[in-house]
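Task card 7
Instruction: Convert sequence to structure tokens.
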Amino acid sequence: MNNLAKQERRLFPRAQYSCRLLISNSGEVIEGNTENLGAGGICVALKKELTRNASISMEIFIEPNRALKCEGYVAWVLKRLDAVDNKTVFFDTGVKFFSLRENDRAYLSKLVERINAAKAG
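Output:
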């Protein structure tokens, strides 16, 4: 694999960060947890499969007193078994934000910087 293929293709950096979120999809509310996040989107583990390209509304509980409300679309979905019990099915779901307030985007960018800086050193 060449160096270009190994480079990060995302416009916004991501950080490993777990927090609770609620997703509204066609009137149904689904609860999940983020695996990573960035100012451009998130990866979330769900117990229900979402349709690729579906538009969704989200409420992401970043911190106890901070919830972000935004909209996005499902970019990709990967089915996997839970690593602990090897039975429970999860759907790792990539979501790209298309409606996120600028101050929330800036907040996520700074959060990612802090997490990645702490991890690096």
